[in-house]
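Predict structure. Input: Pyrimidine monooxygenase RutA, 293 residues.
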Amino acid sequence: MKYTCSVVMAPVDQLVGIAKTAEEVGFDSIALPDSLFFMEKAAADYPYTADGSRMWDENAPWVDPLIAAAAMGSVTSTLRFYTHVLKLGSRQPLLLARQVGSVANLTNNRFGFGIGIGWAPEEFEWCGVPYQRRGARVDEMIEVIKLVLGGGMVEFHGEFFDFDRLQMSPAPSLPVPFYVGGHTDVALKRAARVGDGWSTAMMTSAQLNETIGRLNALRSEYGRADQPFEVQAVCIDKFGVDGHRELAEMGVTDNIVVPWVFDGLGFDAPLEKKQDSLKRFADTYIHSGWQDA
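Output follows.
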């Protein structure tokens, strides 16, 4: 099982230091969250809390995850990065393809594209994109972005997007993996059908186990059961070596953690304390040899 450190709501001036330390102590990846803006009044409930409230306020720090990946990639050589997850629905696919391709090239193929639709109507409407039919539009966006990133002269004529022959150069030298987020059945079908993996928000181990079973069944239906597939999980009730072993046994391939939160520190804790937490977590889990037992 891989270990990924999430930098959710970490101050912007800490990101480079966190990346350097994460690589030094043996983490596999950095997970980069996405939020466009904080609307004072939200038209929809946040889907990943029991009461629909957001877990942050207007002062919580967010940086564009693609820019963050490029900055953190420039000071590391082995650490990977993936968006967890970028809200695809409010973006324009050709512009986004250019950005994703650039990050993949600048990091020497150390970037994975984690994607979701987006939950807030305001993020769509205030960016000039309709909220209606967002799922179908995102499905077509995935097609467009994969097509363009594949390189060469391409064209696309769909329901939502239409363009004649064009080419973006340089294309990434390796395919950019697409990780699909979301807990709904529609999202799981999308992940099984077109994804190289599935990313979760916060889930219990029981929810994870049930969902992984559903994903495996869907991947078999789509004829993709034998293809490599990542399960990137944020589990809220399995801790310690035994808990991590249970997650690996149920099919989690990538454990997303925030070590300083486990140590009782806040998201805005000083960088030095977060670096200590990264080292302590790595000694306890990454270098403990439990996966070799």
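The longest helix spans residues 205-221.
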